[in-house]
Each structure stands twice: as C-alpha cells, then as structure tokens.
Amino acid sequence: MIRPHRFTPNPDTAADNAFQVAATGAPDVLADKAYQEVTRAAEVLKDAGITVHLFDDEDATRPDSVFPNNWFSTHAGGRAALYPMYAPSRRTERRQDIVEMLKTQYRVQDVIDYSGLEHDNVFLEGTGAMVLDQVSRIAYTARSRRADPVVLERFCTAFGYEPMVFDAADSNGTPVYHTNVIMCIASEFVLIGLSMITDPRRREEVAHRLSGRRGTRTVLDLTPEQIHDFAGNSIELEGHQGQRFLALSTRAAATLTAGQREVIEASCTLLPLDVPTIELAGGSVRCMLAGIDLDARRELRDSVGPAGLEPTTTAV
Questions:
Q1: Is the CB of residue 168 less than 8 Å from the CB of residue 195?
Q2: Taking the alpha carbons of 192, 195, 198, 204 in that order, is the dihedral positive or negative?
Q3: Is 246 left (phi over 0), alpha (psi -120 to 50) or beta?
Q4: Pure H helices in the chain
Q5: Which domains does the chain have, with CATH numbers?
Q6: Would you give per-residue pLDDT tens digits along the chain (316 residues)?
C-alpha cells in the first residue's frame, strides 16, 4: 500500500474516469484525510492477519500514487511485471525501492518491464486494466485507452493467460476505464456488473467462463448502482492462517444485498475499509492494494524495513 502525503483527484485522468469526482475544500485537509484513511486501512488489514507493506509518498507530482496495482503485479513462480501508464503524471509512481523490497523479502526470479512502451503510446495499467483468473488463466479486459491489445497479448503470452477482451460502458455510454471497477474474482464467487458489457453474446460468454470449471463459482451480478458504489472494486485476501477475506470499502459493503452477502460470507469474511476521500479519485480498495503472489524468503515479521517502509504485519 502507498500512503500519500499530497493526495488529490488527478486532473490528468478525469477525462475517461467516470468514477472520479472533483474535490472541494483545502488541499491540505484533503491530503490529510487520505493519509489517515490509508493508515487506518492498513491497520485493519494487519489486525486481520494480512501482511501489509506500507510505503509513504511525499511527492506532490504523484496524485494517484495511492493506487499501486496499476504499475506492477506479482505472480506465482517468482515473476513480476511493470506496466506502461496512460497519464504522464502517473509514470513516476514506479518505484525501484518497492521492487527491491520484493526481491529482498520474496523469491523474485524475473521482472518483465513493459513501461518502455509508453514512448509508443501503448498502455496496459496492470491489474486495473486486467482482472486475472489465476485458476482458469484468463485475463478479463475491458477495452479502453488504458488496455492496449498489443501489450495485453504480450503479457498473456509471457505469463500464460488467455486474453478475453470485451466492451463495457455505463448508462451514459462512457467506456469503463478499468476492468477492476466492474469485476472481482474470488475463490468461490465473482462480483461483476454484467449489464455493463455491451454485447449480449460476449456478456453470456464472460458469465459462463467466470463460473469456472463445472460451474464451481457463483456469479453475483451487480447493478450499475452497486458498481458506482465500488462493489466491483473488491479483492479477496488471505490471512496468516489461510482465512479468506473480501476487502472492500464501507460504501461498497453497504450496497450489497442480503443474498449477495450470504454467498460471500459462505467462503469469506467481509472486511470493510473506510476510504471515502480516496474514492473521490475514481478508485477504491482494490486499486489501493497491489497483491503479492510470491513465496517469502523467510517468515515475515513486524519490522522496520527500507526507507519509507513502515512496521508491517499479502498486499503492497
């Protein structure tokens, strides 16, 4: 997780992010609220037994640094990827100290860097642009300027995924800017705004594939209103004892129906995090967490690490 000291909704990303809201009030007050929200969220995750590596960012030129899942991802087998970012103001979010922490504390064998494709105006914003089904090896991707098919194909070839691309839009016809605002894949269920997939046949195919082999996952269809409240921007996490948690915002949790909660809680504990200020920037809890799917070099303990790394309790 990245704790921002100079947070503000990014004007460079507002044009194609329909979830983003213009901020009001003093910038310092807004930044302090975001700082406190990340601090509290990290504490809640840690108290649940989830490993959290918390880095601070004091750079005023990186308003979206609170969303690290867009610039890197990690994968089983000791692999990581760095991604090309659409907005120039987001490209300096890539931090070598975080990459070095991963190499030091986890078994990282290979880092594939796609960021040079920014010079060719080719972008793929990580696990924001893609929602990865690690069981069926499918990369679900809503078509957008932040998910170029060329680099998507390269990623899927290198990491062993089948690309499944579709068009998705809100009720005003605005394309969905990131796939992870409309879709969350957990072990035993999926949260997805199916109605936002514009082609009916593609919608049916996506729903079928998401249900998993032999229909082992329950597909929970979210309404556009629930998507707007970030119910799709959730992530399943694992605690130290193997417990499953669904991390989502308090706003998202409040919009779930009793039936949806029943399905989720059959396999996961709901873990709401209060992040209303950060949600002004058009992303929520899933965007704030860059998951770590790597083997630790040794048991992770609470300790002071590299500069910017807070005492910690898996998510960056």
A1: no
A2: positive
A3: beta
A4: 27-47, 96-105, 126-129, 149-159, 200-210, 224-228, 250-255, 258-265, 276-279, 285-288
A5: 2-288 (3.75.10.10)
A6: 999 999 988 888 988 888 988 877 898 999 999 999 999 999 999 999 999 999 999 999 999 999 999 999 999 999 999 999 999 999 999 999 999 999 999 999 999 999 999 999 999 999 999 999 999 999 999 999 999 999 999 999 999 999 999 999 998 999 999 999 999 999 999 999 999 999 999 999 999 999 988 778 999 999 999 999 999 999 999 999 999 999 999 999 999 999 999 999 999 999 999 999 999 999 999 999 999 999 999 765 543 343 333 333 344 5
Is residue 66 within 8 Å of residue 33, measured between CB atoms?
no
pTM of the model: 0.92
CA distance 167 to 132: 17
The continuous run of DSSP H or E covering 247 comes out as: strand 244-249
CA distance 11 to 17: 10
The residue whose two tokens read 């929200």 is: 37
Under 8 Å between Cβ of 81 and 73? yes
Decide if 128 contacts 87 (C-beta within 8 A). no
